[in-house]
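Record 1 of the preview.
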Amino acid sequence: MRQQSGREGPWISNIKFQYNLGMGRHSMDIFVIGITGRIGRLLADHLKDRGDNVKGLTRSTRDEAEFAAVGVKTYVGDLGAMTPHDLAAVVTGTDVIVFTAGSNGGERGVTEAIDRDGVAKTVEAAHLAGVRRVALVSVFPEAWRERELPADEEYYFAAKKEAEVTLSHSGLDWFILRPSLLTDDASTGLIALGLAEVHGQISRGDVAATLAHLLHEPRISRQILELNEGDIRIEAAVSCAAAEAETETAAKCSPDRA
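->
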C-alpha cells in the first residue's frame, strides 16, 4: 500500500478529476529550487521541452542572465538567508515547487540551512503562497551503508530524513523521489521505479527525465518512490507507478524489448 498522510485534500481530488478528463499533460508553471545544480538544469530543459513555464531560484546574477537566454525566469536569492515569506513571494502563482537543492554532505551548517531548513521553508512558503504540490529529490536511506562515513555525511542523511518527514506531514500534495548513486553517465531512458528498489546507480539525466514525467502525473501523490537504473522505459515506469497509486494494487510493467 502506498504511503499516505491523512485524508486527501480537495486540491488532490480536483487534480485527479482533471487527469480523468484527459488533462494530465497540460502545461504547468513549475518553480525549481536548486535549478543551478546538475539535476535542476537538466530538469529545466525537460520541462521547457514539454511546454512548461519554468522558474527557479539562483544566487548569482550571472546565472539569471544565462537562464533568461533560454526562456527560464530566475530570482536571485540565498535560500539559507531567505524567510518563508521571502520565498512565498517568488513562488506565488506556481502549480508545483520542485526541491532539488542539496549540500552533498558538506559542512554541517550548510546541510542544516539547505537540506533540512530549506525544505521546511519551502513547505511553509507553499502554504503561504497557496501552492499545493511540492516534489522533493532526496536520497536512499541505505546509501553508502557499506562504508564508514564521516560525521558530517552521517548528519547529511539524518537531515534528508528530517526533510522527508516535514514534507510528508505537511498536508500538501507531495511526492518524494529517492534516486540511487548519481552519475554523469549518458542517459539510457531505462529505469526501475517503485516504493522500494535496490540501491545501485543512475544517471542525473535519467533522474531529471523521470522527475519531469512524475510532475505531470497527478496520480503520483503523497508517495515516496525509489529510483534506480533498470529495464523499463521512463514513461512506462511512471505510468505503472501511477496505476499502482490509483488502485493500490501491483501493476505489471514489462521490460523494454527494443
